[in-house]
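In response to reviewer comment 3 from the previous cycle, which asked for concrete evidence that the modeling workflow produces usable outputs, we include below a single protein chain processed end to end. The sequence was submitted unchanged, and the resulting structure tokens are shown without manual editing.
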Amino acid sequence: MIRSLCAVGLAGALIVAGPLAAAPAPGAVPARAHWPVRGADDETQRLIDRGVMMLYAFDVGEARVAFGEALKKNPDAALAYWGQAEADTIDINQPQTAAGDRRGALAVVEGRAHLEHASEVERMLVDAIAKRYGSGTKKERFTRYADALSAWTKTHRDDANVLTVAAFAIWNGEDAFFDGHDALTPKTKEMLADLDDALQLEATNLGAHHLRIHLLEELRRAHEAVPDAEALGSYGYPPGTSHLPHMAGHIWARVGEYTRMVDDNQRAIANDQAWFALGDGPGQQYMKSYHDHDVDFVLYGLTTVGRDDDVRAFVKGEDSFSQIKTALRLHEDERVGELAKGATSGYAGFAAAFAAARLGDAATAHAARGRLVAEDPLGPRAALLEGAIALGSHDLAARVVAYARAYDRTKNDLPGDPKNYYPTPIGEGYGAALLGANQAAEAERVFSAELKRFPNDPHLEWGLAEALRAQGKDDAAPRAAYKSHWKGSRDLTLAALG
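The workflow returned the following structure tokens.
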């Protein structure tokens, strides 16, 4: 993790003075967010717009700062009170904390005391989000908020920001996007309609592009979000908004555009570095939780296409956690042992045991297996470790059984997401286990299925070509695809897969 270099005061001074407002990449159109506020002077409006941008970028710590500064300028800016409460609501990855519930409830109380000069939309927003901070379970409160916004958007579909916020609220109130018959639920359809209409009204709406990527990825329709990825990848961003260029990578991973995934996430990392260098305030603190996610996409992309020298050089500047994952992906098992020395739990403990198993140290791996089952009883790591133990002991049949169990869990539940498991890719590993056990027809089936989910992956293309060749089938197409996509200095081997 990159550490902050300057005092919090510097960041605060820059927020008030405004130099962070535009730092676009050369030739890029500056990203913008705008939510007009009745009666706001230029500086109050600028700060509110900054807060909205940070909401859409999931830098909610900085959003609270910006809205707070706006309220110092204009205590009657009701949208800023809503924004402070929304800052502890909008991030779909972590929409609720105990501290956030306290902050948001206070913002609602203060907002309701400053509605005399508010617009109709501002009044609606404050009243709606008050329901999120009322009594009841998380689901009850978030559903009440979403329902209040839905009641408004049924008859008011002329505000891109309201439609976008309503879609975020629906997401946080829903448990599933499909019904029991693999059809979209009514609320999922409503989310899509809200986001589509928001982009019809405002084609550059950052929040709508952001959530549309998440939603279409979850719906297994990532190709439909390519325009959203194109949009978020095209802007120049001020520091603190790294999550927006990063989001394009979600789609590039799904459609097999690994170079673009790496490029957009390297831009996100540069944004992180600029942001962390400005201080260690709430915005920087919050975005540290996302920095490793940006790094993962770069590591995943570079290792997928075989740019091993580039990935080794890149990861030197990152923390040991990222270095462990990279070494594991590159099968540098002795290096993993050095980096994770003494680790017995968490990911480092898993990595140390996995690498030891591949090196033939079954005793160390077996000792870790019980801990892994206790830590994550439904997850695939224990099965992956069993597969590594079987590989280290040359028990090819046992390796197939272990990988089959891990693959069945992830393809159904995760669905085999490489962003989570790229250091020990499960589908790829299963195909390799089958191929190593002379089950070429089954290996062909697995590699083919994985390529539908993750196209243009040269590891999978090479595996498919080998499976076809082992059966005496024509392997020309996947072999040519592999040669086109592989950037490594040496050809892949079966030992390099999984």
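DSSP finds 26 helices and two strands in the chain. We consider this sufficient to address the reviewer's concern, and the full set will be provided in the supplementary archive.
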